[in-house]
Write a structure and sequence with these properties.
Length: 174
């Protein structure tokens, strides 16, 4: 009957499954460390790592990241720029909810800020320093979606293919 306790248990189970899938904890053939891990974190994980959904979540996700770091030789922790925008929007919404003194139908982040007596100006300070907080956690905002043909020799540049087809078969349409 305790929904919040159930949610914490659910998060721990999901974290444990994620951990096992990343480090192959149940695979007895696995030896040594993982090389060159690139990890992309979702907004909800970032919020929990930053502590905006409570200390329990923060500690568990910090343990998860620490475990991954210990079991990999090289790791890059990232979040997509779209998730960064989502993070800012969630914090902005929490700030607005506090300014409006809204207490119903609010996010866990807003509940956290209300329960810990954050003011809207406190949240604005967090928003202004969020990139530094991510940097402290060694999280990079990823925005390089460009196609690199020299790194993808077996992939086809669809735009170029379309141009080539049009050029080659254009005489049939004339």
């Amino acid at each position: 009957n305790d929904y919040s306790l159930f949610k914490i248990f659910e998060d721990l189970c999901v974290g444990y499954m994620l951990l096992n899938s990343i480090v192959y904890a149940n695979d007895n053939r696995m030896e040594g460390k993982l090389d060159n891990i690139t990890l992309f974190l979702d907004t909800s994980i970032i919020l929990r790592l930053l502590g905006f959904e409570g200390e329990t979540h923060k500690k568990k996700y910090e343990e998860l990241i620490l475990y991954i770091k210990k079991n990999s030789t090289t790791i890059s922790i990232n979040m997509f720029d779209k998730h960064f925008d989502e993070l800012i929007n969630i914090l902005d919404k929490a700030k607005k909810n506090i300014e409006d003194n809204k207490k119903d139908n609010i996010s866990n982040v807003t509940k956290f800020f209300i329960e810990n007596n954050y003011s809207s100006s406190d949240i604005q300070i967090i928003i202004n320093s969020i990139e530094n907080k991510l940097e402290d956690l060694s999280i990079t905002i990823f925005s390089d979606y460009g196609y690199k043909s020299n790194e993808n020799e077996y992939q086809i540049d669809e735009s170029q293919l379309k141009e080539d087809i049009i050029k080659k078969y254009a005489y049939h349409n004339n």
